[in-house]
Amino acid sequence: MISAKEIIGLIDSPSREDILLVESAYEFAEKAHERHERFSGEPYFIHLTETAKILAEYGMSATTIAAGLLHDSIEDTEVTEEMLKEKFGPEILFLIDGVTKLGQLKYRGSDRHNESLRKLFVAMSEDIRVLMIKLADRLHNMRTLFHVPKEKQKRIAAETLEIYAPIAYRLGIRKLSRELEDLAFPYVYPAEAKRLKELTRERYDKNLEGLEKFLKSVKKALAKEGITKVRTEYRVKGLYSLHKKLLIKKKDPDQVFDVLALRIIVPQITDCYQILGIIHGIWRPLPGRIKDYIAFPKPNGYQALQTTVFTGDGSIVEVQIKTEEMHRHAEYGIASHMSYKLGNVAGKVPESLQWIKHLLPKQLSKDTASVTSKTFSKNKDVPQWIKEIVEHHNIEDDNEKFREGLRSDFFEHRIFVFSPKGDVVDLPRASTPVDFAYSIHSDIGNHMAGAKVNGKLVSLDTALHNGDIVDITTKTGAKPSTKWLEYAKTTSAKHKIRSAVHKRENKKN
């Protein structure tokens, strides 16, 4: 069993107060759960220590780790909210209460399951630490899923693939989403998982020798140009990620070039572009395979230069070039920027992630309800996709529609489109100018008279593609029609169209 000392050892520079808090939460949880067991027959407390360890590994604060140790105390023991509040204070009770309200594994049936998803997203909007505890809890449950009765395994794994892994990915926590995907994949798609495991083993063994030879040549070329401060590593593509890519490529493994990729990690952004130039000056790149995610990051914040080159010996290699900060963010995402010690946030959070601070309670009130979705919705710096998830909670929608909306709006492939001023708008694939207009502002959508894509007039049902520049024309007298519901792909745009049409009809009546 993991000791309190081991967990504390993973915290970056813990204060005396941090150490005492984690030790106290550890002892309290151990006593509260002393008679509880898991499906495996192991003490339930082991699950709590593993959850706390995961939180510590992802750089969470002592407060979040303590809440992770205590997160099942109210639901599964005789411990009361008053007891927790008196011993650990209102902030930790706030986090525990947020996790307890989700009650994800306690629900049975589609309607109650989907209602728990609504609670998950509202908790996420109120304080992102609640979500981090839930993700850590789910990760350890997936690591031990083989102990769960077989009839439950596939349901839990499918839920992980459909909901939890995509949320972690959208928050940029690729390390966590990748592990969740690869743990769940064999339970949901056993035959495909077995086949891909054999395929990657063959490709890895076959390509590793050539990749090491290519790496030596790259280092030699960089040293010749005076670049010596580089760190390199190999990346093996996750099995589920490979599965999705093979579906896109019509299951042709020969068209997937990044099963094994080379990472070059450097101190500065200028180094990235210089190294890309050196590599292309020696090795010929594949057309259409050069991606600048530094200038145009992915929706989850991922940044790097990516290119795929012919090595000259018949092989093709993907090369990823990024800074240490980009690499850290690619693996840990939002978690790499979460610091909850007062005075420790300013100056360390990139501008694109300033919204994180708005998900933290500024000053906890006596009843611990200091952060609500109402106050949260006023924060302009929060990413639009998180705002929209919270809006879904307030829409009286059919549960299945709600879940389908989440899947299509937030967890499918995303595209980047631009306003004429160069602002980037993140939308689901196959979105239209209608979705674009409403994602900018309801007033723009409600008064849209026409649209141009890349300078050309287009119909409102035109599917947008990555890199399109969209210009919306508005007129005071223009109004949305029910026909637009067929054009809109996002649930948010459809809701706003229905609302505008409904208000107009009420005025007529």
UniProtKB/TrEMBL annotation:
Domain TGS, chain residue ranges per copy: 413-474
GO cellular component: plasma membrane
GO biological process: guanosine tetraphosphate metabolic process
Entries under Gene3D superfamilies matching the protein: 3.10.20.30, Beta Polymerase, domain 2, Hypothetical protein af1432
Domain HD positions: 44-142
Family annotation (PROSITE patterns): HD, TGS
Family classification: Belongs to the RelA/SpoT family.
Name listed for the protein in its UniProt record: TGS domain-containing protein
Source organism of this protein record: Candidatus Zambryskibacteria bacterium RIFCSPLOWO2_01_FULL_43_17
